[in-house]
Amino acid sequence: MAITPRKRNQKKGIQPHLGQGRFYFALFIVFGVFASLVARAAYIQVIEPEQLIYEGDRRSLRMDPTTVQRGTIVDRHGRELAVSVPVQTVWADPQRVHEGQGLANRERWLALAEVFRTDVDSLMERVADPKRRFVYLERKVTPAVADYVRQLGIPGVYLKTESRRFYPVGEITAHLVGFTDIDGNGIEGLEAAYNEVLTGKPGERLYRKDAQGRVVEEVRATDAEQPQQLTLSIDQRLQSLAYAELKKAVRYHQATSGSAVIVDVDTGEVLAMVNSPSFNPNNRTDWQPHRMRNRVITDAYEPGSTMKPLVVLAGLESGAIEVDTVIDTNPGWMRLGGRRVSDPTNRGEQSITEILQNSSNMGSSKIALLTGVEQLLATYAAVGLGNDTGIGMIGESYGVLQHRTRWSDFEVATLSFGYGLTATTLQLAQAYTVIANGGVFRPLTIQRRAEGELPPGRQVVSRENAEAVLLMLEQVVADGSAKNARVPGYRVAGKTGTARKAIAGGYGDEYVTLFAGVAPVSDPRIAVVVTINEPSGDDYYGSTVSAPIFAEIVGDALRAMNVPPDHLEDTQLHVAGFGGGQ
Known about the structure:
There is one protein chain. With 582 residues, the chain is an alpha+beta fold. It has 19 helices and 23 strands. Strands 2, 3, 4, 5 and 10 form a five-stranded mixed sheet that branches. A five-stranded antiparallel sheet has the order 12-11-23-22-21, with helices on both faces. Helix 13 packs across helix 18 and helix 14 (361-371) packs across helix 16 (409-416). It is elongated. It catalyses: Preferential cleavage: (Ac)2-L-Lys-D-Ala-|-D-Ala. Also transpeptidation of peptidyl-alanyl moieties that are N-acyl substituents of D-alanine. This is Peptidoglycan D,D-transpeptidase FtsI. The chain crosses the membrane at residues 21-43.
């Protein structure tokens, strides 16, 4: 009995010590947990908060884009040449496709593949990965195809609205306007050159929603920057008629290609720019590279006898000749450094006008030798040869106008009748614009000039000499080698050109035929150049191939522009009478 109280006292002595240890251990655990929570909170909120912010924003932030259509391209009268139209694009959410058992019904995918004209296995392969959330099935389909996709009702396959570029006049302006890629970015022609102007910038609205889908915060709203409309100097009426005539002529002469351009003499605006063969920019299934080149600005040829008026102009400017100068071309040929320059026949003494009327190589060569190569090249450069025209289009060729310290007499002679240099159809039109505009050079433009925005021109040759050459060119059409270029009711000035095409090691058997001219002479309004490349058969002269096309284009253009006739003497006026008499 004496032992029991002692044990009880010993047990009571140990209990306070054990309770205090447990208390401190529990306190340590509590503080440790609290410290870890504080550390974690500090780490999340101070050191690396981005992940949770991102996750929170993913669940609450929403963005609605404000789409903008690509800007339209119109002609000088507001007729649409390129517009954007809304279309449907077919896309799929592979995860939703698998969740809805969308691959179970192969027949519906087979029907979808048939309208897309593709293989069903490759189509189904695009949605085979259930981890993907977006894949295109077919971009920019027709409304009929979009309706068919809706009727199929394949789970996870949806439609969304996009815009597609449409070209109302098709092949008529294809080379000029160009086209865009599948995403609406310009890749050819004016679509590429003015891509930034036509694209604009989409806007967006950023807002936050709660769990019930209610908008609780407007975070940001950015207004869309609307694209600009591109207004061209092109007159769609002139463009259409020029293309129709050129296409008909290229087919008739079985030529490789042809080009034509109409330029406003006063303003330097390009009113028409056409090529044949062309292509349909609305149908990309059968495009051929040789059809897609804008030959008016990319292809440079030796311009042949169309240079002879510029040789006369250079001679008048230098004082080497006068308007009434007579050149002796006897005996119809001459040798220069062992090379022969000749005319088809010996025409003897010829006036300057007769040299142009007869397209005399002897006459132009002697004028060039009297003038000197420096003055000749300076005149060529002054009217725009060997340089850009100012039109600002992608792919424009400068042609070739060499500047050397040494020239042989034969090389100077060949420069006078259009060999040893190259020029594009547009450069040649600019040169004749200078003649028609009284010697004033003005950069060309493809955009319509607003009222009062006519840039000041440079007087590169004297008005007197330019007008003298213009009157000489009128005689070339009236009584010379270019009679096929006559336009009933109008005074026309112009010059033919026929040039053999250069090949490796010399010249081949293919030709380029040209005609460059101005109308009406009394008050020049337009300069027109027609180029036919490699006509087939024996008819390959500018006077018989290009001149008639020029006449058709000029006649139609002047009437479309309401230009009054200035030469009624060669037309018969039919006056309607009473009583059925004729």
